């Protein structure tokens, strides 16, 4: 599946259902991920379905690409070991159009999580002179196809809801290699889980005017805890290092039906917007109850409650000007994430900063190409933590047009 190829080797993606993709588009990524309370008539809002209704008569189609360069480091036996990798993926496809003057609908497809890791460990076999070598790998991820609706209740109050079909699979394998003087065995355990089910999100927004020039934006979203369908397959086998089977594969279970539990999530946003969207400053806070997560075996996944804080600013010099340079939009942001992982009792934090801009294109300059650059670090070189320093680049295309217009005949 093209959408679930991931963003390079990430050891932390071995936990839970994998590493989460950014929920926003390139526009949001350029301003720290802020997007729960703010929206624009030129870009889609993928974070709060209620704000779809802030759009008027334009139909918009968006495509996003994302790339990542990361360097991984860890202290092993007082020696720093490092690795670097580069990867890219399709970030999102989305379409939104008006169903009425108050109601807007969107359809989108985007990757939701990815699993991509490969770790090795060598330890002595107790009481012997031999070594045991362990190799852990994982591949796959989940994708998200979403149908969302936003409705304007009053001039300043909006409600929205979305239904998303999650689908994809995750394959984890563990190889144990016992090296002795007489034989060399490789014992492999392969676990594959296929996920497919529907999850929901609710959203609300309120945009009271503070004056002729300033508007206050308030937004919130809620994703309830969900039990999603899962099918598991477990296989054990002994082989030689050359791949010659020593025993026949032992299938413990084949496409066994079960369910995994995804946690509830809440996000809140507040932003201050100047007239004609020439200036916007916003803050988002998110809470994810990952301690509620349960595997397809209904076991605790070893995850902890997580928190996200994001702040961002967006500035367009003169939105009503006829000069091109006055219509370029600039963005900057900061994000702090307390991840749902702990290593040696210490929480893993992700801190990053971002910049971005949007260039208007096409007839009447209503289309945009958006670029966002995010640089950050998570984890530190202490205990058994893995430090990851990364740079992400997001490229987005927003195409606006007057679709579904009833033509009049003179």
Secondary-structure topology with pairs:
Blueprint: E1 19-20, H1 26-29, E2 59-76, E3 79-98, E4 103-124, E5 131-152, E6 157-179, E7 184-206, E8 214-223, E9 226-240, E10 250-262, E11 265-274, E12 279-288, E13 306-315, E14 329-343, E15 346-361, E16 367-378, E17 387-401
Antiparallel strand pairs: 1-4, 2-3, 2-17, 3-4, 4-5, 5-6, 6-7, 7-8, 7-9, 8-11, 9-10, 11-12, 12-13, 13-14, 14-15, 15-16, 16-17
CATH architecture: Beta Barrel
Strand tally = 17
Q: Provide the structure class.
A: mainly beta
Q: Calculate Rg over CA atoms.
A: 24 Å
Poorly predicted parts: none
At the third CATH level, what is the topology name?
Porin
Placed side by side, the strands forming the largest sheet appear as 2-3-4-5-6-7-8-11-12-13-14-15-16-17
Mean pLDDT: 88
- Report on the biggest sheet: 14 strands, antiparallel, barrel
By CATH reckoning, the class would read Mainly Beta
Give the overall silhouette.
Answer: elongated
Instruction: Please identify which CATH superfamily we are dealing with.
Output: Outer membrane protein transport protein (OMPP1/FadL/TodX)
In words, what does this structure look like?
- With 410 residues, the chain is mainly β.
- It has one helix and 17 strands.
- The chain is elongated, with a radius of gyration of 24 Å.
